Amino acid sequence: MTQVFQFEQDFADSLRCVPMRVRYNLDTCGIKLKLAHWHALPWGDRQLLLDLPCQSEADIAAYRQRVYDLVAAQGGDRPADLPLDPQPAWLNAHQIPDSVQQQGQRVGVCLTTEQWSRLDPLQRFALIKLSQSSHEHQNFLPALREFGVLEIAGSEA
Prior knowledge:
Layout: H1 20-29, E1 31-32, H2 35-40, H3 43-51, H4 57-73, E2 80-81, H5 98-106, H6 113-118, H7 121-131, H8 140-146, H9 149-156
Antiparallel strand pairs: 1-2
Helix pairs in contact: 1-4, 5-7
Organism: Thermoleptolyngbya oregonensis NK1-22
Pfam family, one: Nitr_red_assoc
Protein name: Nitrate reductase maturation protein NarM
């Protein structure tokens, strides 16, 4: 399955939860998609939202419209718009958000700026989302392992 992290594999086949890649795309195009919206979408539409590009301005506009169209086709109310952050934290490879540092400390890992900069934006996005207080945090440590942060930390110590 494309762009689903290892720590997401327990729901990857059914796509019952919104994968990080889709969440990243939704934040990129400024859409708050409710879980009820996601559950109303047929599996093929969920897979489509996982596979569609969302990088260029044209991609972002097309992705946004596709989400609106897919939700409307299922009879759902229009997803809320989110303000677009012109400088989202996951694109900043030089500053680790406090929530990530704090969650790292809770699990006994002190992330360095060098480690953070080696991660790609989607990996940084995932760690930010997994470290937020509204999240269960159970996948934070598996994500660090998957992204090689723990191996990097072990080799530099």
